[in-house]
Amino acid sequence: MMNHKKTKCTVCGKLFSLSELTPGRFMRPNVAERIVAEHPEWNDDSYICHSDLNRYRSLYIQNVLEQERGELTTLEHDVINSLREHDIVSQNLNDAIESQSTVGQRLADKVASFGGSWTFILLFAGILIVWVSINSVAIFIRPFDPFPFIFLNLVLSCLAAIQAPIIMMSQNRQGDKDRMQSENDYRINLKAELEIRHLHSKMDLLLTHQWQRLLEIQQVQTDLLEELSNKR
């Protein structure tokens, strides 16, 4: 039968299976120091559950960031929490922004997009040509806006007065999008940096453990060689 014996977590005191625990000898020294500060009975033969381990890792990372960068921002706290919960910090900003947009904001984006296209330029140029042609070559009809086209100037002025603030609203929204994109990139880069540090620490511990095992094997081989040489 399989052994279902459970082992006690030194930190929280709860019972867990060995697969849900991490031995103290595999802990990063800096993380182990934080545990010892709160639990003096901790040693290399102790065990800690994954939940408490993630909590102390996040506390260690938070302490490192505070030492390097001073007081942590909200974004950095979000990244630390995501490391603790193993969550993903990246998100689709386009969907998030569109879901929060009002009808007026979406309309401003469409107007600004149309106003900055070749379709608008060609359409506007065609209207001007037709307008000027009708009012300049008035053979059969009386022109409704003769030269110097005062009514045309009024229409253009009104169009510019309306279009300018709409374009500014769209630019403000684009600025908000760029700011959110920068914050999202910062979260991703910060988490990647911390994950790489965590991976390096795991590799260091693994190499140290394997090196100790190799030394033990080498000592055994040396003892065997000495025994063989003594028998000759």
UniProtKB/TrEMBL annotation:
Cytoplasm keyword on record: no
Q: Which UniProt keywords apply?
A: Membrane, Transmembrane, Transmembrane helix
Q: Whose protein is this, by species?
A: Roseimaritima multifibrata
Write down what this protein is called: DUF1003 domain-containing protein
Signal peptide segment: none
User: Which sequence ranges are marked TM in the entry?
Assistant: 120-141, 147-170
The record ties this protein, via InterPro entries, to: DUF1003 (IPR010406)
